Amino acid sequence: MEKTLREIARIVGGEIVGDPEVVICGVSGIKEAKKGDITFLANRRYMPLIDSTQASAIIAPLDVGPASKPLIKTADPSAAFAMVVAQMCPARISHPKGIHKTAVIAKSAKIGRDVAIGPYVVIEDNVKIADNTIIYAGCYIGHDVEIGANCLFYANVSIRERITIGSRVSIQSGSVIGSEGFGYTNVDGVYKLIPQIGTVLIEDDVEIGANVTVDRARFDKTVIGKGTKIDNLVQIAHNVVIGENSIIIAQAGISGSTHIGRGVTIAGQAGLVGHIDIGDGAVCAAQAGVTKSVPAHTIVSGYPAKPHEEAKKINACVQRLPHLIETLNDLKKRLEELEKQIKPKG
Fold first, then answer.
1. Run of H or E including 16
2. pTM over cut 0.90
């Protein structure tokens, strides 16, 4: 599909700098782009590539100066580029349709209009699935589960019993929702499982990556708030509550009964202890070890996690330790020599 730069600018509501009649026939990253492609610049570290990229045009921030390539300036280049991709490269995925003959569906289950159920799906008693939801092959839906409209579950997703899922929820392959919470008590040296009798509530417009585990609550419910996006390989423990529109990135782990506010970012491999509060808009940086509550709109990093500016200073000192040890050893030698010189004879 070909479009002129003028047409693309109309799609994203951007300002053209350069020739508006440049023809665009593809989309690509700024490093990989070739002639005829449009790319985007969202991360400032790629600014040096703005003149060297082979792309025919660039979607750029409003404050970018003159460039050798035509630009479309916009307040959010990443979002604008996503709009262009959707227009020029529409998804060609063909989702399942209808109910496959190998699916096992309990008689008491209530299936809405235009629901698609793939091969070897198992749907237990009293399940309710609303209209237009798509369930790929090999999924398991436990008893008394309620699923909203327009959801999409890829292959081998497991939804355990008594879980509630809102509308427009997407879950990638291999994820398990409602697994047993990790709660044990030591009785005479033997660990005994504490019954986990709660549930999980996933609100509307949540997207969950592959191989994510969301444990059911010990009591009450584990909650994933509306609009939250969860990357692959994330562990969310029992009774965790995550507020609306938060981002949880790959390999993060959130321990039981931790409350996470709205608009929070938990970066890759961050680990959070249980029973703490993460305030609205807070950021836990990659590999942060969060051992206590974080105030709203605060960035923390390091282990144990500290305010980011303080953590950077500590890390800078740690990086200088080899040099400081050399300096200390040198001073020690010089001190020993001075002591020998001033020591009284006899």
1. strand 15-17
2. no
